[in-house]
Design brief:
Strand content: 5-15%
Shape: elongated
Order of helices and strands: HHHHHHHHHHHHEHEEHHEEE
Number of helices: 15
Number of strands: 6
Largest sheet: 6 strands, mixed
Radius of gyration: 35 Å
Helix content: 55-70%
Strand order of the largest sheet: 4-5-3-2-1-6
């Protein structure tokens, strides 16, 4: 294949894959094996050079330049990354571009270009671009494919399916542009690659961009060798150089975009993990306080109420009776607070019983709450149950406090593969955008809880038109659904 990519009997080619392959291998193996691999590469290059009739002086310069390039790239990258390079950050990509795409080919081309007949700087440009293009496509693709299983092990089959679709589309478009004989130059078709490279960068990162550019480069170079490239001109050197510059200028921006996307996604996952930990810690603390209130404070208040009642019976003091009533009311308030902090009924009897109990409490204090449940799974994951209950709790508290309404509805419905919740009122409503911009903590907390269980939250509210809060959470299809008629609880 490499022979087909050589422009002429000179040793300059549109893309030289040997050094990029060797550096990728060096980065993946122990440094103790480096001398053997480099020696094998030198012997292979010498035999190949003698076969094609290169002079010994030319061969020495070419091998020296290639060896220096391989050592600079391998040692420099290993120093910068302390292991296998990962191009999923802007810093990592910058280091890779500086060492492997700029510095190593630059030094090698300054030495090797002397060995080639013709104008020195023309040879230098051609040599540099061929090496830089290889390091920009081949090496990143190899390193990314080696680590693909660790990165995408959970969804490997869908990942590979989509990647195959992307690569197939890129290959098909490349064949259409570079291999078909056009009556006129199809240069405008080059813009058709932009959506596919965006797809590669946004969905697959550096792996997608490097693999796509590798396919584009090989097919375009093949077409250039056979006179079918959109870059064909009368001067073959100028034709190849135009192709090289196009490939380099197309690859670098999209690799930068891929690095930014991967870095942003990693930051998002970190924040998501932190949010999950904070909410979990919040729930643990609420549970601890609820247990303390119920097991200690409530019991002590109950004992105090009993003692006051006994003394009141003996003394007959009306003042003690008032103190006893206040103490009993305080005991009830503390029990209600404990229940609201962490309802034990949710753990013991499940989501339906917990929501029903909470709606009953709201109805006793602030109006009427109709709770409707239909086909709700008999068992739900703990995080799903807790998220749904907290949304109901927060939504009803907000409705009671701000809506001005006296009638509220809670609708919980199970469907195949999902569960839906709606909390609504017919109150004054509010401007959702303004509340979100002000950073309303209740809405933010609800959204975070729903997001952590891979659900969606939609808030629909307008002035004097009430508020509807809708939640949709995915469930495993194996969940058992209760096939019972709709239940309405007042």
């Amino acid at each position: 294949m490499a022979e087909k990519l050589v422009l002429s009997r000179q040793v300059i080619s549109a893309i030289y894959i040997g050094n990029a392959l060797l550096v990728a291998v060096l980065l993946l193996v122990s440094r103790r094996t480096w001398p053997l691999l480099i020696l094998a590469d030198i012997l292979g290059a010498a035999l190949h050079g003698l076969q094609v009739g290169l002079k010994p002086s030319m061969l020495v310069l070419i091998i020296t330049g290639a060896t220096v390039e391989n050592l600079i790239a391998a040692l420099g990258l290993q120093y910068c990354f302390n292991g296998v390079p990962r191009l999923n950050t802007l810093k990592g990509l910058s280091q890779y571009l500086l060492v492997a795409v700029l510095l190593a080919p630059l030094v090698a081309s300054l030495v090797a270009a002397v060995a080639v007949q013709g104008f020195y700087w023309t040879n230098w440009r051609m040599w540099y671009c061929s090496e830089a293009l290889a390091f920009l496509t081949i090496t990143p693709a190899i390193l990314s494919w080696v680590s693909i299983h660790a990165v995408h092990s959970r969804k490997l089959l869908p990942f590979l399916s989509e990647f195959a679709l992307l690569l197939g589309s890129v290959v098909l478009l490349s064949c259409l542009v570079a291999l078909v004989r056009w009556k006129t130059n199809p240069a405008a078709l080059l813009f058709c690659f932009v959506p596919f490279l965006l797809w590669a960068a946004l969905r697959f990162g550096s792996l997608g961009v490097s693999s796509s550019m590798l396919a584009i480069a090989f097919l375009f170079i093949w077409g250039n060798v056979h006179g079918r490239s959109p870059f064909m001109v009368s001067d073959p050197f100028q034709s190849v150089q135009s192709l090289q510059l196009f490939l380099l200028s197309a690859a670098i921006p999209f690799m930068v975009l891929a690095a930014l996307v991967e870095e942003r996604e990693r930051t998002h996952q970190t924040l998501l993990s932190l949010s999950h930990k904070l909410i979990a810690a919040h729930e643990q603390e609420r549970s601890r306080i609820a247990r303390e209130l119920h097991d200690d404070i409530c019991q002590r208040l109950a004992m105090l109420s009993i003692r006051i009642e006994r003394v009141n019976k003996i003394s007959g003091s009306g003042q003690l009776e008032q103190i006893w009533s206040q103490c009993s009311a305080l005991t009830g308030d503390v029990q209600a607070l404990s229940h609201e902090l962490h309802p034990s009924i949710l753990d013991n009897l499940g989501l339906i019983a917990a929501i029903k109990s909470f709606c009953r409490e709201i109805s006793e204090r602030s109006g009427t709450v109709d709770f409707i449940d239909r086909n709700v799974p008999a068992t739900l994951p703990q995080d799903v149950s807790l998220s749904l209950f907290r949304v109901v709790q927060e939504a009803l508290h907000n409705a009671v406090k701000y809506s001005g309404a006296k009638h509220f509805e809670v609708n919980l419905q199970g469907k195949v593969g999902k569960i839906e919740l709606e909390v609504s009122d017919s109150g004054v409503g509010f401007d959702v955008t303004k509340v979100k911009n002000k950073g309303g903590l209740g809405l933010v907390t609800m959204a975070e809880r729903v997001h952590l269980v891979n659900g969606t939250l939609n808030i629909d509210s307008q002035a004097n038109c009430g508020t509807h809060i809708r939640v949709r959470l995915p469930l495993a299809k194996r969940q058992n659904f209760l096939t019972r008629p709709t239940n309405v609880h007042h």
